[in-house]
Amino acid sequence: MSIRKAVVTAAGWGTRFLPATKAQPKETLPLVDRPIIQYVIEEAVASGIEQIIIVTAWGKRAIEDHFDRSFELEHALEKKGDLERLAEVRRISSLADICYLRQKEQLGLGHAISTTRCLIGDEPFAVFLPDDIIDGEEPCMKQMVQVYDRYKCSVVAVQSVPPDAVDKYGIIEPRPMSERVYQVMSVVEKPHPHEAPSNLGIVGRYILTPEIFEMLDRTPPGKGGEVQLTDGLQLLIQRQAVYGYEFVGTRYDAGTPLGFLKASVDLALRRPDIGPEFRRYLQTLNLSDGHNVDSVREEHESSAKG
Ligand code: G1P
């Protein structure tokens, strides 16, 4: 059986993005003109996933509304004759079969995954952390499904991270297997740089076998007092093989203001409708060291007005 179901975790507080996330789910912040979470739902669908479980929490209702029908909005667009936007709004509400599950207490990523056991059942499934936006020709999860189909075991997405950033990731001890594929010999959550087994960090895409649920039941709170998925994976490794896959694509950490800005700029530049003009605007900014960006912007604005 290949991968039919996915879990998207969206219950976190979004503290790295406060105050924007005080009253708005971070998953609904727009990258160009789409909420962050729509990118991962589209990636899931493009990877052959049929059913998606979004783990939400208190204050996250906007996510449900985004993927629901909105008859009033549709009616208004129809009346205005804005058929393009109407089609897009309707497309979003029929992207996938989505259900929502509330994580009542934020006890960690591992805990969020274990709450989905009743809906996943006894089959392998994908996990998406929506902070991680991965852009590329072939969807990251589609690449991972191919690795799963070949090895039939859990697969985690990995990428090289700077040595001084290993304490922000789950880090794997890799044993090379084939091109871009490693067997994970051990895994550690956010190690100190001098204790990291490599600089291959896990990013927010996983394919997990259902045995992970049993492992998570046995996983005590770890780093930060939270039940860590990484610790559950370390238990799983002792029972069955887990692979790491170095995906092809560019990953952005859209859960921080800087990563979000980088993703916004790159994705906007690639959009055929606004990309060319946005590029021309960026070219008017002389960003060389010491140059006063404000004065360039004023020049641009006055020439635009004139
Ligand atoms: C989580 C995981 C970590 C992983 C990271 C990827 O950490 O616990 O192992 O490397 O996502 O984005 P978080 O960034 O949620 O603290």
Give the amount of beta strand, in percent: 15-25%
Distance between the termini: 63 Å
Shape: globular
Tell me the Rg in angstroms. 21 Å
| Arithmetic mean pLDDT | 93
Are there runs of 5+ residues with pLDDT below 50, and where?
none
- Sequence of secondary-structure elements: EEEHEHHHEHHEEHEEEEHHEEHHH
The amount of helix comes to: 25-40%
Question: What's the structural blueprint in terms of helices and strands?
Answer:
Layout: E1 5-9, E2 30-31, E3 34-35, H1 36-46, E4 51-56, H2 61-66, H3 71-80, H4 83-93, E5 97-102, H5 109-114, H6 117-120, E6 125-128, E7 132-135, H7 140-151, E8 154-160, E9 170-178, E10 181-189, E11 200-208, H8 211-217, H9 229-237, E12 242-246, E13 250-253, H10 257-269, H11 275-283, H12 293-305
Helix pairs in contact: 3-4, 8-9
Bound molecules: 1-O-phosphono-alpha-D-glucopyranose.
Main traits of this protein?
single chain, 306 residues, alpha/beta, 2 domains, nine-stranded mixed sheet, two-stranded antiparallel sheet, 12 helices, 36% helix, globular, binds 1-O-phosphono-alpha-D-glucopyranose
Summarize it.
The protein is α/β, with parallel strands linked by helices. The protein has helices at 36-46, 61-66, 71-80, 83-93, 109-114, 117-120, 140-151, 211-217, 229-237, 257-269, 275-283, 293-305, and strands spanning 5-9, 30-31, 34-35, 51-56, 97-102, 125-128, 132-135, 154-160, 170-178, 181-189, 200-208, 242-246, 250-253. The protein is built from twelve helices and 13 strands.
